[in-house]
Design goal:
Beta Polymerase, domain 2; single chain; 13 helices; about 15% strand; alpha+beta; three-stranded antiparallel sheet; disordered N terminus; about 50% helix; 10 strands; 2 domains
Length: about 375
């Protein structure tokens, strides 16, 4: 690796040094937490370092939960050269929020739970899930944490649905930017789509910590055998000319679909980045609701698919009908799902007739 230290760039920290830094920072955090709490409430530590991420430049968050707090507030303190963000939260509000995240109630007819759980609130609950409780005199915080852990499956579904809804919203922004001829905005927004899709996929793998800047660190520790092609697409595609930029937008729309499909279904496969024949429409989005999986587009059309049907739609992209059916059936078998060639072929024809996939030459001008 080339050394750029003469430009003022820092080199990588060794694992032993990082471990020692983490130990010292956590010790100081525990002492600070007890000082901040006093007799007024319970405290938990959270943030990237507590979640196994972060660096010596990272803050540790101290959350004070108390009945005596009248309104949420925050401040920053320093201890021995370390910086801590202190958040004060009213107990009743915090307990209500966490309990809302212990169930997954989003369905096609009522997605209001996502409205009550925007990204900022999901982030707080996720930090609590991955936190270390330091002060908890009455045991209520530990009891709440145990309830959240016991309902982890529902929480993970909620996290995936939140990210998937964000991907859909971003897809609409990408489509709007393309219609306006604003290719650079489309490139930027499609990049955000991929990272949000990656967060959904990582949440499905049990790594739910939020923050797009942590996607690659989480990917390295969580995805045991990452597909080289998927990792390449996740890293982003350099683009210089307008045509290259437009192609990058398409590929990032498609890979965000792949990531949300894998998150929603539990299946993993190697996406195709440069399709030659059959393609998915780039502006279709996947919404993993409690009562089924919905593939929807910006104009409001929606098609409900089974888990295996959604996988078939995904792997049909860039493959011939025969290749898609063969791959889908092999993935089904690995999950213990048996389907004949003729059954999968009929489902494929249904997806095709519904307009969920088409020949690349049939895509509208804004999509190829």
């Amino acid at each position: 690796m080339e050394n750029y230290s003469h430009f003022g760039l820092l080199g990588p920290m060794g694992e032993a040094a990082r471990t020692d830094w983490m130990r010292k920072r956590m010790e100081e955090s525990r002492r600070s937490a007890r000082e901040v709490a006093g007799d007024s409430g319970s405290v938990f530590l959270a943030g990237a370092p507590v979640a196994g991420l972060g660096s010596p430049r990272s803050d540790i968050d101290l959350f004070v939960v108390s009945d005596s707090i009248t309104a949420a507030s925050s401040r920053q303190i320093g201890r021995n050269g370390a910086r801590f963000d202190v958040e004060f939260i009213r107990s009743s509000e915090f307990y209500s929020l966490v309990q809302q995240a212990c169930s997954f109630d989003v369905c096609a007819s009522d997605a209001s739970q996502l409205g009550r759980m925007p990204r900022a609130r999901l982030d707080l609950v996720t930090r609590f899930l991955l936190s270390e409780i330091v002060v908890d005199e009455d045991g209520r915080l530990a009891q709440l944490h145990a309830e959240l852990v016991a309902n982890r499956e529902s929480f993970d579904h909620l996290s995936i649905a939140r990210h998937a809804q964000d991907v859909q919203n971003m897809s609409e922004d990408v489509a709007g930017a393309l219609l306006n001829g604003d290719i650079m905005s489309a490139v930027h927004q499609s990049r955000q789509m991929v990272l949000r899709g990656a967060e959904a996929y990582l949440a499905s793998k049990g790594d739910p910590y939020l923050g797009e800047k942590w996607v690659f660190a989480k990917w390295r520790r969580t995805v045991a055998t990452p597909a080289a092609n998927l990792l390449h697409l996740l890293q982003g595609i350099p683009s210089r000319t307008p045509d290259e930029s437009h192609r990058a937008v398409l590929e990032q729309c498609w890979v965000s679909q792949d990531l949300t499909v894998m998150a929603a279904t539990g299946y993993s496969y190697d996406p195709i980045s440069s399709p030659k024949d059959v393609v998915r429409g780039p502006h279709w989005s996947v919404l993993p609701w409690r009562d089924g999986l919905l593939v929807t587009q910006r104009e409001g059309q929606g098609v409900a698919l089974s888990r295996e049907g959604l996988l078939l739609w995904a792997v049909a992209h860039g493959r011939s009908k025969g290749e898609a059916i063969k791959l889908a059936r092999s993935l089904y078998v690995a999950k213990g799902v048996i389907a004949t060639v003729s059954e999968v072929a009929r489902y494929y024809d249904g997806i095709l007739s519904a307009g969920l996939i088409c020949n690349i030459s049939d895509q509208p001008d804004s999509a190829h």
